[in-house]
Design brief:
Blueprint: E1 3-4, E2 20-23, H1 38-47, E3 61-65, E4 76-81, E5 84-89, E6 92-95, E7 101-106, E8 113-117, E9 122-131, E10 134-135, E11 142-145, E12 150-159, E13 162-163, E14 170-173, E15 182-187, E16 190-192, E17 195-196, E18 202-204, E19 208-213, E20 216-218, E21 221-222, E22 229-231, E23 235-238, E24 241-243, E25 246-247, E26 253-255, E27 259-263, E28 266-268, E29 271-272, E30 279-281, E31 291-295, E32 298-300, E33 303-304, E34 310-313, E35 316-320, E36 323-325, E37 328-329, E38 336-339, E39 350-353, E40 356-358, E41 361-362, E42 369-384, E43 387-389, E44 398-411, E45 414-415, E46 428-429, E47 435-439, E48 446-450, E49 510-518, E50 523-527, E51 534-535, E52 541-546, E53 550-557, E54 561-568, E55 578-582, E56 588-596, E57 599-607, E58 612-616, E59 623-624, E60 627-633, E61 637-644, E62 648-655, E63 663-666, E64 671-679
Length: about 700
């Protein structure tokens, strides 16, 4: 591996106090070519001298690029790097113009940068792609030494980099006794396809802290710990994505110290051969200052031997408003495992509040736990406001278990199957949660939302809707559950008093919609399926529907009745059989009037000496050889026909029908019809048939 570090003999000017160094060459490191290339700019900044045509560096330097180096339409400058650039001296800020991209391509034999700046310095890089680098040391793309205070990486992509040591993209070479704090700030960046022994993307040792926002970690691999991140100190992660990363422990993140705070992020399809498909957080058993704060995250479709979702041990745990769904453990816990190992582990506090555990699977038989498992605690375990929705086919495995805890608070939880951790009368057991998938965008591909009849809605008393720090739970998985102000929660059941919904999803404000039948007729009033409104009786059926939602009400008149009109709040729909309304912010009641349809008697008689049958096509009530009658609904069209016996003849209709063809009647009044038949065998001498 080569590193560029020149002994300075010439090609420099006098020292200046500050500098912006402009790269005007598309070459990486060809010296003395009459331009300022990237390597020369780095040397000018480090030595505070002028190399070739570069400006003289001094103090905290900025390296920028001429716009002409980024031709349209790609707006990209590609530099092929065959050496490692050593950055030293004061702070260096490498700036790529807005709307442009710098791509550094490695020959695969070394890292791009070895950053060895002075104490209290910073390093910044933006709008750059670093790909295909490889290092035998730590940091496949960039290696940092111990003195830099802050590292700013904005819109930087690390692709297919490798380290034989630690940190496939970023690693550190620090003395074991180093105590200065370095903070890495990652903003809108991505790490794709990087690999190392530990920390497939980043390896951050003690006293190295991470602030990560809007960053993607995809398909990174570690042989041992941390498919994406291997960390020892505090990290903050917001609005970031960890997908398809692999390791032995901790597919997305593996942490052995500090405070790990992760919120509003996605962990999906990560895979480990041991524990912690999405995240593994551990520490020494007697230390009680480290913790995992995991809030408003989606943990989906991860796989592990145990703790396929999240595995935590020897840490305080604050696990709030997360969706943990469809994770699979081969032998242990499918969703969340919290392990404290022994009763002398120290005073740890466990708070598992307002989460949804959905269809997590343990394939470990009776030893497996599908959703949540907590073993030992020497302080307080609080488990409230959680929804456990398990597959019935998985009911031979324990759903939830808290084992040998000293102080356990369990309330306002719901499980659709029997559960080992829902202890007490304030939980709902064997209750259908009535939830539905709702597709989302951003960091949460979907959420499981309570439908209108769900027992999750407003079932968590608002006076107890607090997190483990005693703070009001203002947020659910994807947004707010509180209007603003103390205890001003959404009123999802329309009773004018808002409470929290059990689980990670909060439904918005709703109003009660009542429907009922009036009149002397009978019939059915029903809404579109999602409203769950369906009523047949005179007593009003009532359901809470989200304010602003459009509902469609329909009618179905039963036999003998007909729909007349809508009334009360549905009066605007008049006599239309379908009524479309927008739910207002107050109670509404819609009535549907049905009336009995009037009937008229139809009497059919036969006369003459002939034989035959008289019948109606539309009803079996009229079918007679002599006479019969029936009550027929108003305006019904009746067609009378005759069936004549052999040797006999139908002559004519009389009464309300005439002629000898079919008799068509509209039943708008009482009707009487006579049919005349003759016997053709009865003939008198005068040759006329006897009538």
């Amino acid at each position: 591996m080569k590193k560029i570090c020149f002994v300075v003999i010439g090609c420099f000017m006098q020292v200046a106090w500050s500098a912006t160094i402009t790269v005007d060459s598309s070459e990486f490191n060809n010296s003395n070519n009459g331009n300022c290339n990237f390597a020369e700019a780095v040397l000018s900044a480090g030595f505070d001298l002028a190399f070739d045509q570069c400006a003289m560096g001094s103090g905290d330097d900025v390296i920028q690029f001429e716009l002409s180096l980024f031709p349209a339409p790609l707006n990209t400058l590609i530099l092929s790097a065959d050496d490692t650039l050593i950055l030293f001296g004061d702070s260096i800020d490498i700036q790529v113009p807005a709307g442009k991209t710098l791509t550094l391509l490695s020959d695969g034999n070394q890292a791009f940068f070895d950053v060895n700046l002075d104490p209290n310095s910073s390093f910044s890089l933006n709008r750059t792609i670093l790909r295909d680098a490889s290092s035998s040391g730590n940091g496949g793309a960039i290696q940092f030494d111990e003195d830099v205070d802050d590292i700013y990486l904005t819109e930087v992509s690390f692709i297919n980099n490798h380290s034989d040591g630690f940190g496939g993209a970023i690693g550190f070479d620090r003395a074991q006794n180093a105590t200065n704090i370095t903070t890495i700030h990652l903003i809108d960046s991505e790490f794709i396809g990087n690999s190392a022994e530990n920390g497939g993307a980043i390896f951050a040792d003690k006293f190295i802290r991470l602030n990560i926002n809007g960053t993607v970690f995809n398909n990174n691999t570690a042989a041992d710990f941390g498919g994406a991140l291997r960390v020892f100190d505090d990290i903050n992660v917001e609005q970031s994505v960890f997908t398809a990363n692999q390791a032995q422990y901790g597919g997305g993140i593996y942490s052995t110290g500090g405070v790990v705070d992760v919120q509003n992020s996605l962990f999906e399809n990560n895979l480990v051969s041991a524990n912690g498909g999405a995240l593994f957080k551990t520490n020494e058993v007697t230390i009680t200052t480290t913790e995992l704060r995991f809030r408003r995250n989606s943990v989906l479709n991860n796989q592990a031997a145990s703790g396929a979702g999240v595995f935590v041990e020897y840490n305080h745990l604050y696990f709030n408003n997360n969706l943990v769904a469809n994770n699979v453990a081969s032998v242990g816990v499918g969703g969340l495992r919290n392990n404290l190992s022994s009763s002398t582990d120290g005073a740890h506090q466990i708070n598992i509040i307002g989460n949804t555990f959905y269809h997590n699977i343990s394939q470990g038989g009776g030893a497996g736990v599908a959703d949540v498992y907590s073993y030992f605690s020497n302080n307080v375990t609080t488990y409230k406001g959680n929804a456990l929705v398990s597959e019935a086919s998985n009911n031979t495995v324990t759903k939830c278990q808290f084992f040998r805890v000293n102080n356990h608070v369990s309330k306002h939880n719901l499980s659709n199957l029997d559960s080992g951790c829902l202890i007490g009368n304030d939980n709902q057991i064997l209750a259908d949660p009535v939830v539905a998938y709702e597709s989302q965008t951003g960091f949460h591909p979907y959420r499981l939302v309570p439908k209108v009849t769900s027992p999750l809605i407003d079932a968590w008393e608002r006076n107890d809707c607090y997190d483990g720090d005693g703070l009001l739970l203002d947020f659910d998985l994807t947004g707010r559950r509180n209007h603003s102000g103390l205890l001003n929660f959404y009123n999802g059941d329309g009773d004018d008093q808002g409470h929290c919904d059990i689980g990670s999803a909060e439904v918005p404000d709703a109003s009660l919609v009542g429907i009922g039948r009036v009149g002397n007729g009978v019939g059915r009033i029903y809404g579109n399926p999602e409203t769950a409104l369906d009523c047949t009786g005179p007593i009003v059926c009532e359901q809470a529907i989200t304010i602003g939602e459009e509902i469609t009400l329909n009618t179905q008149a039963y036999f003998g009745s007909r729909f007349v009109q809508w009334g009360l709040d549905g009066a605007v729909c008049g006599m239309a059989e379908t009524c479309v309304l927008t739910v207002p912010n107050h109670l509404i009641t819609v009535s549907a009037e049905f009336e009995l349809i009037p009937t008229y008697q139809l009497t059919v008689e036969k006369q003459g000496n002939g034989l035959g049958r008289i019948y109606a096509i539309q009803t079996q009530a009229i079918d007679c050889g002599e006479s019969c009658s029936a009550h027929i609904q108003e305006n019904t069209v009746i067609t009378l026909e005759v069936d004549v016996n052999n040797g006999h003849q139908f002559v004519e209709w009389s009464g309300d029908c005439t002629g000898s063809g079919s008799c068509d009647l509209v039943m708008d009044s009482e009707k009487t019809v006579t049919a005349t038949f003759i016997n053709l065998d009865v003939i008198f001498d005068n040759g006329f048939e006897e009538l």
